[in-house]
Specification:
- The protein has three domains: 203 residues, FAD/NAD(P)-binding domain; 112 residues, FAD/NAD(P)-binding domain, CATH 3.50.50.60; 110 residues, 2-Layer Sandwich (Enolase-like, domain 1), CATH 3.30.390.30.
- By secondary structure, it is α/β, with parallel strands linked by helices.
- Helices cover 33% and strands 24% of the residues.
- The N and C termini lie far apart (65 Å).
- It is globular.
- Strands 1, 2, 3, 4, 5, 6 and 17 form a seven-stranded mixed sheet that branches.
- The protein binds flavin-adenine dinucleotide and 1,4-dihydronicotinamide adenine dinucleotide (NAI).
- The site of flavin-adenine dinucleotide has 36 residues, from helix 1, strand 2, helix 2, helix 3 and helix 10.
């Protein structure tokens, strides 16, 4: 340790970085974390998972009151008014509480926060805001930022990224969302519930790429019923802003006649790219692959001994819980333990209403690998969903035709994000569909639909 300032220096304090730093410190390693943002917690806590969920929750309650959904349950409210200022304030409060919580955890675990931008000056040295830090191990956890659309300038006023879309000072009359992925649908839903007319322009022929095909179709149907308009197989070729209004030029993805759409706000949500600019990776002898990611091995080690990488900056889904699990595993590997993440079982959730969740293989991907059995159960047959007036959606369980081992589970219903944990745990333990079908599930719960879908794999559900 003589010449080193730290055993571990983590660059970036997002869900990957802060978790890695805390775990490393818990394991007795002298740890620091460099963060250039004013507050800890990265994209997720500051401008991602947390503020988006604060707006999704509040706008959902507003929508339930404003559209008369609550009145139908016997909850009469008189006139319903939106106080957007208060809604933004509770979002900021949620972010402040949680980012402050990480600062507290750093102090508690004796992780030193080095404030400022970090860049490599050698294989084991980093410059943080003018100060040289030498560490035995360096974990790159610098996350990701919005992918720009060529020729479209994000001014965070009329043309916004997800960060600007969380902060809009008034509800736009018309909003165009470029990209029908997770961010577009979550934040498009927020502003649609608050009164905006939202049009989603998606390059592909269906929304939510990467998810199960039937789930994508069902989600599209439900969002249309909620008033979102979709222009699928369509590309945006230009966005012009004049006097606070945007004019978008769109045309069929395959080419064809162009048309224009007017909007008061445009959200660019066509994906995110790894953050490596300004890290001076060359000084450490590192480079990026053609997708801009830092390549790692199974242990999260880069090709340069002592340098590790996790989270959005490495290949794999850009998800906070994936980054967190990698943070724990990399710290354990550095400490000489065996840190493992099972990348085949990473759940993903879209926090719309209803929620959309999946884990493991889609039906399409599973079919490509071999013979499968599929069991489906509609939420319309689930007593709790029916009682709560939530007839939309279904659960799908995909199992290996020969071994019955569960390969994937897909869910659309109000609490799908909570339900998917059961499926992930079952898959982690190598469960069969029969194991799930013969597990007692509490009644009346939405989770019973997972049991019934598993029973459907074996061909014997009860309630349909
Ligand atoms: P990040 O959280 O991006 O953190 C990286 C940190 O490193 C940043 O704070 C950055 O300032 C800092 N940094 C970068 N370079 C340097 C440098 N050179 N020196 C010092 N500091 C540096 N995922 C989910 O699982 N669930 C969700 O509900 C969800 N919602 C999202 C909503 C939105 C609107 C967005 C944009 C993303 C959402 N995500 C969600 C994705 C999630 O935020 C990311 O997957 C996650 O934050 C990745 O964690 P990370 O630690 O890899 O990086
Ligand atoms: P995304 O990859 O989910 O969706 C981008 C969409 O834009 C795709 O459907 C793609 O086909 C489309 N697209 C790409 N180029 C286009 C173009 N030129 N014109 C029209 N459409 C185009 O990316 P998104 O929504 O920006 O989110 C980024 C990341 O953030 C995701 O990978 C996701 O993992 C993460 N995230 C996770 C959340 C969650 O877990 N609930 C919430 C929000 C973000």
């Amino acid at each position: 340790m003589a010449d080193y300032n730290f055993d571990v220096l983590v660059i970036g304090s997002g869900p990957g970085g802060y978790v890695a730093a805390i775990r490393a410190a818990q394991l007795g390693l002298k740890t620091a974390c460099a963060e250039s943002r004013e507050t800890l917690g990265g994209t997720c806590l500051n401008v991602g998972c947390i503020p988006s969920k604060a707006m999704l929750h509040a706008s959902e309650l507003f929508g339930e009151a404003a559209t008369g959904k609550l009145a139908k349950l016997g909850v009469k409210l008189g006139s319903v008014e939106l106080d957007l200022g208060a809604m933004h304030a509770q979002r900021r409060e949620a972010v402040k509480g949680l980012t402050g919580g990480i600062e507290y955890l750093f102090k508690k675990n004796k992780v030193e926060w080095l404030k400022g931008h970090a860049k490599f000056t050698g294989k084991d040295t980093v410059d943080v805001a003018g100060k040289t830090v030498r560490a035995k191990n360096i974990i790159i956890a610098t996350g990701s930022s919005v992918t720009p659309l060529p020729g479209v300038e994000i001014d965070e006023d009329v043309v916004v990224s997800s960060t600007g879309a969380l902060e809009l000072a008034k509800v736009p009359e018309k909003m165009v969302v470029i990209g029908g992925g997770v961010i577009g649908l979550e934040l498009g839903s927020v502003w649609s519930r608050l009164g905006a007319k939202v049009t989603v322009v998606e390059f592909l022929d269906q929304i939510l790429p990467g998810m199960d095909g039937e789930i994508r179709k069902e989600a599209n149907k439900i969002f249309k019923k909620q008033g979102l308009e979709f222009k699928l197989s369509t590309k945006v070729t230009a966005v012009k802003v004049d006097g606070g209004k945007a004019t978008l030029t769109v045309e069929p993805a395959a080419g064809g006649a162009a048309e224009t759409i007017e909007a008061d706000a445009v959200l660019v949500s066509i994906g995110r790219k790894p953050n490596t600019d300004g890290l001076n990776l060359e000084a450490a002898g590192l480079s990026v692959n053609k997708r801009g990611q830092i390549e790692i091995d199974h242990d999260f080690a880069t090709p340069v001994p002592g340098i590790w990488a996790i989270g959005d900056v490495v290949p794999g889904p850009m998800l906070a819980h994936k980054a967190e699990d990698e943070g724990i595993a990399v710290a354990e590997n550095i400490a000489g333990l065996t840190g493992i993440v099972n990348h085949d079982v990473i759940p993903s959730v879209v926090y719309t209403t209803p929620e959309i969740a999946g884990v493991g293989l889609t039906e399409e991907a599973a079919k490509e690998k071999g013979a499968i059995k599929v069991g489906k159960f509609p939420m319309a047959g689930n007593s709790r969903a029916k009682t709560n007036h939530e007839p939309d959606g279904f659960v799908k369980v995909i199992a290996d035709a020969e071994t019955d081992r569960v390969l994937g589970v897909w869910i659309i219903t109000s609490v799908a994000g909570t339900m998917i944990a059961q499926a992930a745990q079952a898959m982690e333990f190598g469960a069969t569909s029969e194991d799930i079908a013969y597990t007692c599930h509490a009644h009346p719960t939405h989770s019973e639909a997972i049991k019934e879908a598993a029973m459907a794999v074996l061909g014997k559900p009860i309630h349909i």
